[in-house]
Amino acid sequence: MMTGRHTVEQQRHTVEGTDPGLFVEVHEPATDAGLRPVLLIHGFSSSSKLNWADSGWITALQDAGRRVITVDLPGHGRSHSPEDLDSYTPSRIRADLLQIATDAGARPLRDGDPSTGLDIVGYSLGSRLAWEFGATQPDLVHRIVLGGPSSADPLAAFDLVAAQRYLADGTPIGDESTAGLLKMAQLLPSNDLFALLSLIEAIKGEPFDPDEAAPHVPILLVAGEKDDRAATMPELAHLAGKRGALVETLVVPGRTHTNVITSRAFKEAAIEFLGV
Amino acid sequence: MAEISFPLPDLGEGLIEATVLDWLVSPGQQVERNQPIVELETSKSALELPSPQAGKVVRIHGAAGETINVGEPLIVFEVPDDTAGIVGTVPKDEAPKRRVRLSAVLDED
Amino acid sequence: MSEAATALSFAPGPVTMETEPVLHLSMQQALNRALDEILADHPKTVIFGEDCGRLGGVFRITDGLQAKHGEERVFDTPLAESAILGMSVGLAMAGFHPIPEVQFDGFAYPAINQIVCQIARMNYRSRGTLPMPITLRVPSFGGIRAPEHHGESLEALFAHVPGLKVVSPSTPHDAYHLLKYAATRPDPVIFMEPKSRYWQKGPVVVSTATPGQAMLDAGMDDGGSLTGARVAREGRHLTLVAWGAMVARCLQVAELAAEDGIDVEVVDLRWLKPIDAEALARSVGKTRRAVVVHEAPLTSGLGAEVAQLITQHCFQTLKAPVERVTGFDVPYPSGDLEDEYIPNIDRILFGIQRVLEYRRG
User: Is C353 in CB contact (< 8 Å) with chain B?
Assistant: First the structure.
């Protein structure tokens, strides 16, 4: 049931003087539990539709009475694909996310008022953004769920030159991770490959350093048992834990980085973790 | 009661098959329209398939890990015979109500 | 019951199949069964339309037929009614017997050109060398609270076109036999299914024999042959003429009128083109009063044609002008207003009262 879905086009603000052209939707629950909104941040080469709608997340959160904000990252889904590199930098995206959350009604945390603040669920690249957003917006962020997280950003190690050469003349790509990520990006005909490569380039300029800024708020880390990145979860837990954050982890049996997203166990754990 | 079988629908993006990750419903269970029934994984993403209609689950095809081609049977529902089409509602059979009374002198000429 | 049927009930051992079985089916099931038998008996028959194949039709009339008879004989079409009927023309030219479906009556409008300019006159145009044995199934009329274009009454439109035959069953039994009959005719037939009656069940004498004969064999008199009108209820004082879903309503009205001492006969027209004028003359010649009831708007509706035929044949004996109780001269309303639009019991009773009150001079 897609109750009360609407875009927040009418409240569009520029950030740092430019319109990021990001596609945002707010999904209202049939019965509002009175809790703060949940912002969903999707992964690389995905979209709000693939990552959150088709996988059943939006409905599950709505059924739990949560108001859900979804946003397509630049160059993804129904968002614009800007020409300038700056639009793709993680710092710029975080600024856009802050504006979007505020436009959608998220307000700074106030003690004793469960409707204030913002909960975040990130997936893969979205987890990295959520980690940094949580660390830099302590007045706004209440709790964070990170799916398929990694302490090292695989996109930062992406061999852009090899990818460009492969796209130009078919020269095979030596690096396995680069070849895999490019294949993933090419799988969806709707993907704007130029924009995705711009995003990678921008990420290489601002690689993920989870120790530079770590959230202090409660965090739930979730990964599939067969996801290689799950091995880095203890490191993330340690980094947040040493700053006083309450950290819980969940490993979903039998699931990979790709298919843990639909798992009931993941959804139920996230809804319970955020439902306070 | 009638049985309605649903094949694996076209999942778009040129996908021709999907692998069952987990069934969220089991035979004998009553499901509502749009209720998630199965988790599927394609070569591009994982997704949850909503039920195309309300009814009792009679059979499910494909155990976890098995691959199903688009168009092959996925799930069979049992539905009442008087389920309406996709559009409109089944009219209720109600006892006739009247307000008008007839009065006539019937000359039999 | 006929002697044969009575004798059977006393017969020892297994019942022979000389008498056809009587089933209790909804019109939906009866139509499905008829199509199944048509496909089995007539290899040149093909069925197609929007969602007719894999889904089995939005009203489930073609349910299971694709699985049983194959994708070459029962298949889905694009959402293009003009193409559905245009393809029917080509198939008929190539010797097939198409049974296309227009999913809802209002969707027939985009196909009017193919129906009127090609299907209806191809036989005439080709001097009988290219007959069009097409049976166009159209879920018709209102009563299911559907949105716009999903509840129309197009019978007058179709009946006005030379070359077309138009029929509308009111019971599961008639639906089964009329469809089997229509599908084997060499002429194009517009088969208007009253969608609000799809789910009501009734006895159906199923038969692989010639339509009509089966009922006689089973000792069931259907009040007329399948090619004409049917007396659905006998009465002495007044004749209600109706078709499709309005027949059931008129039968309810007849029961209520009986409480007031008025004995109403109900004639189910069944064929709207050609109209069984003899049956009308027989009934109204006896009752001397008539009311026509239809869902379609009043002006230039089929009620005018029926009223004229009655007047023509019964002018000398009629006690009052023929009354019409119909839908209003407005576009078909939204579902919430449907009950105000479709002739209801009180409006029909008023129509009867007007006829009863009429005095000459």
Answer: yes
